[in-house]
Design goal:
165 residues; Quinone Oxidoreductase, Chain A, domain 1; 19% helix; binds zinc ion
Length: 165
């Protein structure tokens, strides 16, 4: 698949990478439809030490579920989803307080400690708690704008209330 790959400060390139595979039963593989460009992606200066040579950049996206692990219960192949940029286990003390960015097993990992969303496909850990199902008929372009401007807690709250957009 094609992906935007970081190499060193100021050096990144659009190149061929292996398509991601499920690593845990709680993972999902998502085909990216639209993704975002964050300012750190543009100005990667080597100050984010977690972003190492070979890492795929990108945080938030909208996509279609391609494959789910055997422990994923709330999603299936073909579902449209939001990738918020944060993964959450939903079990640690921070997740229980809805402080998902501080999840002990996840948080801001996409495009930092694990491969991100500026690619044709991405692996999402804890898919049941890290992906948001998009109801039929939603404008996916508008959703991309929403995930750039609203923290995950608000997105999740508004989705539960049916008030996003
Ligand atoms: Zn957690």
């Amino acid at each position: 698949m094609k992906a935007l790959v970081y190499h060193s400060p100021g050096k990144k390139s659009w190149e061929e990478k292996p398509k991601p595979e499920l690593k845990k039963t709680t993972d999902a593989i998502v085909k990216i439809l639209k993704t975002t460009l964050y300012e750190t992606d543009l100005h990667m200066k080597g100050d984010l030490l977690e972003v190492t040579d070979g890492k795929i950049l990108g945080h938030e996206a909208v996509g279609i579920v391609e494959e789910v692990g055997s422990s994923v219960n709330n999603l299936k192949k073909g579902d449209y989803v939001i990738i918020s940029g944060i993964t959450s286990c939903d079990k640690c003390e921070f997740c229980k307080k809805e402080m998902y960015a501080h999840c002990k097993k996840g948080g801001h990992v996409l495009g930092y400690t694990i491969d991100g969303t500026q690619a044709e496909y991405v692996r999402i850990p804890y898919a049941d708690n890290s992906l948001y199902l998009i109801p039929t008929g939603f404008d996916k372009e508008a959703l991309i704008q929403s995930i750039k401007t609203e923290p995950k807690k608000q997105i999740s709250h508004k989705f539960r209330l049916g008030k996003l957009l």
